[in-house]
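Subject: for your reference before the review

Hello V.,

The reviewers asked for a structural picture of the protein, and I figured it would be easier to keep everything in one thread rather than splitting it across files. Below is the amino acid sequence we used in the manuscript, unchanged from the supplementary table.
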Amino acid sequence: MNKKVILSLCMAASFSMSAMAQHKQYEEEVAFWKERIQTLASDEFGGRKPLTEYETKTINYIADEFKKLGLQPANNGSYFQPVREISTFARPDKNRIRVKAAKGSMDLNFPDDIVIWTLRGQKKINIPTTDFVFVGFGINAPEYDWNDYEGIDVKGKIVIAMVNDPGFYDKDLFRGRNMTYYGRWTYKLEEAQRQGAAGALVLHNKPAASYGWEVCSSSHIQNNIGLCSDALNADALALQGWLHEEAAKKLFELSGLNFEEVTNAAKKPGFKSFTMKAKSKVTMNVTEINVGESYNVAAVLLGTDLKDEYIVCTAHWDHFGIGKAINGDSIYNGASDNASGTAALMLLAKKFQQLPIKPRRSIVFVAVTSEECGLLGSQGYCENPLFPLSKTAANLNFDGIAPALRTTGVTLRAAGKTNTDALVIAAAAAQGRRVRIVTEDPAGGYFRSDHFNFVKKGVPTVLCGGGGEVIDKEKQAAIPKAYRYHQPNDEYDESWWNFDGAMENLNLMFSIGLMIANQDEMPKWAKDADFQRQPDKK
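And here is what came back from the structure prediction:
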């Protein structure tokens, strides 16, 4: 497709937005979006935690909305795709882990010092007295000539691994300030399991993690959810969790180690992991085990001549449910994260449905479950896709899209990985915005939402949104300052929520989606990209 065609499509897609901004259509779409956010984020939906009564309420509501929009059910006549999950509620015995070290003993107290859980379907977890092993970053990456597990046996032991990757501290290592997947805490747990460890603790550091300890504690203090095998995850880590940095410093001191010296050494090539002079016996009581099916909600708008190729649009419907009260509020409503994205999915479906000419490719809309538990719903979809991944042109994911004020530009993450960059630039230009390429991503945003499961399976994605300066500085100054990420105060508030930027960003993605839906060829990965298209699973 030549640039003129691309630009014309962008202009066609964005024209309706320009008209909306001036006339009734814009107000109607904002009202549509607001209403559905308000509903999903209301107390009546109980924070939308999977495998609870509030899941049933949530998924039925989403399915009804898809049906009202005239979308076809995507799973053999059903809007629901089951995802087998296990939910566990676990606590260490006496809410602590007793550590005996070379220079004394200490308690790692739950949840101030540690937050731990298990996804094994057994009522009691017993780890006999075993060693702690410090494994640096806990990375085994041959392509970067880095293996923290080389020469160390961690079978049956508890490993401690630093969050992020060496590039966070040294721009000449890995990909510098662009975090690789090796830096994600989920990778640390996956690799520890592959190495045969009994347990794994990710060493929290606020700058390297990009969030504070309160996020770790609030995310895992209640029931924890994972995908469930036929063996009830018997081969999973017995213990997994987070270790507070201050508690780690004391643990290292009691082991006869200088915390700063050891962690600094781990940031450099040639570091050798070692067994610490510290041991623990761990008992965890699992008072609740619930194995059941959570559900993705999936609908499809069939295309025309390329209807057997697909764009899959996703947003996670789940949040943290009812948990630890903060300032008297125990309902984690998740208005921005991610009632806004789920409602945006509905609005996007409405916009595609109302096109005078149907898109060539089919558009699939999937509200996925259990993103907050580790991207489980999108993983479930990608392992059992409703439509062939080899025929899936792209994934467009919506996570925390509102509220947002208008900005002068558009941020583009993971530039250079696919040939969709030109589409983003053209769509932004049609809105009068310039693209700012994100050259540093130390927080690893590329790996932190549902699009990444599609990426791992070789499906290209587009990661872009508002960027540059906020246009209305006065409105920006009037927004109440508060930390809301994964907190009960992530609520819809009519007094300050603004949709001007969110609508502009949604229309940007709509334009990009329309171009991908209508162009002759599916998006392609760059030859040097980490991920490539894969054949369908037989």
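For the response letter, the relevant points are probably these. The first strand starts at residue 72 and ends at 73. Residues 88-289 form a domain with the Glucose Oxidase; domain 1 fold (CATH 3.50.30.30).

Happy to draft the paragraph if you're swamped.

O.
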